[in-house]
């Protein structure tokens, strides 16, 4: 299949993926609020198996990561790879297939989780038929993405594409290795790995799904949309390059910090801890690069709600990537492990970083896609306040709960007897769980406001037709494609 | 500036970029993860650790289906307070028949690795069907449907055991042939309780005596 370079960007696909992403955000966050309420009213499931916490919790995490997150990443990857390559998408029909096949997989996968089909491995709960579907769609995503880059009209490959590329390649590797299993039936399989080895493989996956999807993928989004919104080039392109390779190299080692003091070899734990600390450097290099890029556009923050979201997301990115390495230190982890502190940490990343950078991007992107003003700047500002307050309250309540749990569980009196029963400590968590529910509700209502605002912005409008811009001379590649160019260069 | 020159090449070649990412991201896995897959101490059972029988295996898969691992860990860490609260700390050799591992990442409820034998079967049944009737402050969900479903309906037990045997679990032909009869007349509830009662009982007492001086 060959598609002409003279066509328009495939922005209808981008808009459709944004719509799916917002839909999943509302659905998955509603599930999150519901299960937060189950902590306070455990009979809320009404004795229905499909409303039981153990089944809804993976639905919440999978819905957020794969529904909301991946749809947003596909949308922004397809949008930015066309612009940074100055060509339309390679195999656009395959790209549309990725979009709908992915939504179907998330939908049916979600239903299968309610039915109790689960591998139990965190963020990889979906059973083998879905694992295969995900692998196939992911490869198609890669073909469209790298195919577009391969036929670009501009010589350099822009930094955002490296992060999206890292997302596609590394997640494929992790997903396939971690999900290797022998099927028993359509909804049940047994892992190829057992016990301690299964744990080590799972957290190599689990930690790097966070690394290359929730961090790397969204950094791709940041590196394209932050300079666009700030109308400034990246403060230091060289720093972004160095940070990319340091990030890609060191993240992959950090997984075993999820297994401190567990029954795995100590050298694996120690190596995981050290590499987690190393990871602080590329993470903060990226944050500093982002903040410095915005620093020249400070006045714009007063008027542009989209930029506000992105700048705040950078702050939470910095917070979460500092907290993570700290929690990877064994003597801190001994307190934080198994507690709600972990839940708080995950949400400072997922709400504060992933959701906010995506919201900022959507507020910027959607009006431009349809050539209209945002329906309401006031609503977007209100959303900003709700998102900030909700995220802060969520993190603070889970810190308080988690640190209490961790310290009280370990507390022994002068005679060496346990100071508190598990039951007493658990009962004491009620106020924190109530605060967390309020925080979740605030964040969710902000998201609903955004869904309404974006819906009103696009209502009755079609995506604009937008053709690739010409590339200035020193950077231009001839139409016939990249390979010919290198051949010419070699000959010369 | 030589490094930058090299990088310029990478920056303009999609194929090299793909290879570079794959190479750089694979190193950690190859050095750190791969060796542990061949470390024998992680795949050798303790002298007293045995495979799950047909009933316990069915119970374990129900435990997975209901997501018990979402709120309960199965990993006692080697810390004074944990050993006092739960019992001897967990050893790698106890988990070699766990596919998948169920160590968990969150303790909304207590750790369950040493739960086996601590409470009566009756206590577990009542607790699973109505947690607050035995622990008033509990926030655990109730699982009334476990009493209504028969254990034989929770997946093809023979197929499960055959698959696990292919993965190296020492099931005999007699184990597999006799499996359906073992499940006959049991509810899902009974299978789950059987699993809970054998949890953590595979620990070799000789090892704990040596290490913890009991």
- Gap between N and C termini of chain B: 64 Å
The strand count of chain A comes to: 2
Strand order of the largest sheet of chain A: 1-2
Shape of chain A: globular
Low-confidence stretches of chain B: none
Largest sheet: number of strands, sense, barrel closure of chain B: none
Mean pLDDT over the residues of chain A: 94
The strand count of chain B comes to 0
How much strand of chain B?
under 5%
| Average of the residue pLDDT scores of chain B | 93
Order of helix and strand elements from N to C terminus of chain A = HHHHHEEHHHHHHHHHHH
**Which class of secondary structure composition applies to the elements of chain A?**
mainly alpha
Strand content of chain A: under 5%
Kindly, what is the distance between the CA atoms of the first and last residues of chain A, rounded to a whole number of angstroms? Answer: 32 Å
| Gyration radius of chain B, rounded | 23 Å
Large-scale geometry of chain B? globular
Main pleated sheet of chain A = 2 strands, antiparallel
Q: What kind of oligomer do you see?
A: heterodimer
- Residues in helices of chain B, as a percent range: 40-55%
């Amino acid at each position: 299949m060959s598609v002409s370079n003279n066509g328009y960007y495939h922005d209808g696909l981008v808009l459709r993926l944004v719509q799916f992403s917002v839909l999943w955000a509302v659905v998955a966050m509603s599930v999150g609020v519901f299960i937060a309420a189950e902590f306070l009213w455990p009979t809320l499931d009404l004795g229905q198996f499909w409303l039981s916490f153990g089944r809804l919790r993976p639905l919440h995490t999978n819905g957020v990561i794969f529904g909301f997150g991946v749809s947003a990443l596909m949308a922004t990857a397809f949008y930015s790879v066309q612009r940074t390559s100055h060509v339309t998408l390679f195999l656009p029909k395959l790209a549309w297939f990725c979009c709908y096949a992915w939504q179907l997989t998330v939908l049916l996968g979600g239903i299968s989780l309610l039915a109790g089909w689960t591998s139990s491995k965190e963020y990889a709960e979906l059973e083998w038929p879905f694992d295969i579907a995900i692998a196939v769609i992911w490869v198609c995503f890669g073909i469209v993405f790298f195919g577009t880059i391969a036929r670009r009209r501009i010589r350099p490959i822009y930094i955002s594409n490296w992060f999206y590329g890292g997302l596609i390649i590394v997640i494929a590797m992790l997903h396939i290795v971690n999900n290797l299993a022998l099927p028993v039936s359509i909804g049940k399989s047994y892992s190829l790995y057992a016990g301690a080895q299964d744990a080590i493989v799972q957290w190599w996956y689990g930690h790097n799904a966070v690394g290359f999807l929730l961090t790397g993928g969204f950094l791709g989004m940041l590196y394209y949309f932050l300079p666009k919104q700030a109308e400034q080039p990246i403060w230091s392109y060289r720093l972004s390059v160095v940070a990319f390779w340091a990030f890609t190299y060191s993240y992959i080692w950090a997984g075993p910090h999820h297994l401190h003091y567990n029954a795995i070899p100590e050298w694996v734990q120690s190596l995981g801890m050290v590499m987690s600390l190393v990871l602080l450097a590329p993470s903060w290099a990226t944050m500093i690069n982002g903040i410095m890029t915005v620093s020249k556009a400070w006045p714009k923050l007063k008027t542009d709600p989209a930029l506000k979201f992105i700048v705040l997301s950078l702050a939470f990115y910095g917070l979460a990537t500092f907290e993570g390495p700290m929690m990877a230190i064994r003597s801190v982890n001994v307190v934080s492990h198994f507690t709600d502190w972990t839940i708080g940490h995950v949400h400072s990343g997922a709400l504060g970083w992933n959701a906010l950078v995506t919201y900022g991007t959507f507020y910027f992107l959607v009006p431009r896609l349809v050539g209209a003003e945002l329906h309401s700047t006031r609503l977007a500002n209100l959303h900003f306040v709700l998102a900030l307050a909700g995220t802060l309250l969520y993190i603070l309540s889970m810190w308080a709960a988690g640190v209490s749990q961790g310290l009280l569980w370990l507390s022994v009196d002068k005679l060496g007897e346990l100071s508190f029963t598990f039951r007493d400590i658990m009962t004491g968590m009620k106020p924190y769980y109530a605060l967390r529910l309020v925080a979740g509700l605030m964040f969710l209502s902000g998201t609903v406001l955004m869904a309404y605002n974006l819906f009103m912005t696009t209502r009755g409008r079609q995506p604009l037709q937008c053709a690739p811009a010409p590339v200035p001379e020193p950077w231009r590649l001839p139409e016939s494609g990249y390979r010919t160019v290198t051949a010419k260069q070699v000959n010369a | 500036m030589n490094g930058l020159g090299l990088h310029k090449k990478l920056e303009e070649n999609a194929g090299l970029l793909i290879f570079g990412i794959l190479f750089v991201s694979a190193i950690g896995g190859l050095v750190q993860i791969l060796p542990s897959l061949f470390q024998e101490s992680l795949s050798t059972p303790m002298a007293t650790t045995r495979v799950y029988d047909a009933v316990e295996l069915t119970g374990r898969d129900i435990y997975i289906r209901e997501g018990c691992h979402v709120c309960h860990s199965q990993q006692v860490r080697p810390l004074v307070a944990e050993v006092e609260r739960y019992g001897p700390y967990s050893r790698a050799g106890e988990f070699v028949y766990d596919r998948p591992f169920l160590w968990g990442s969150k303790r909304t409820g207590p750790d369950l690795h040493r739960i086996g034998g601590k409470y009566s079967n009756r206590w577990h049944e009542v607790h699973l069907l109505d947690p607050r009737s035995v622990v008033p402050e509990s926030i655990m969900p109730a699982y009334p449907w476990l009493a209504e479903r028969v254990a034989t309906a929770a997946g093809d037990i023979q197929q499960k055991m055959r698959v696990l045997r292919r993965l190296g679990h020492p099931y005999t032909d007699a184990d597999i042939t006799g499996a359906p009869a073992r499940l006959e007349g049991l509810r899902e509830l009974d299978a789950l309780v059987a699993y809970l009662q054998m949890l953590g009982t595979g620990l070799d007492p000789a090892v704990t005596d040596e290490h913890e001086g009991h």
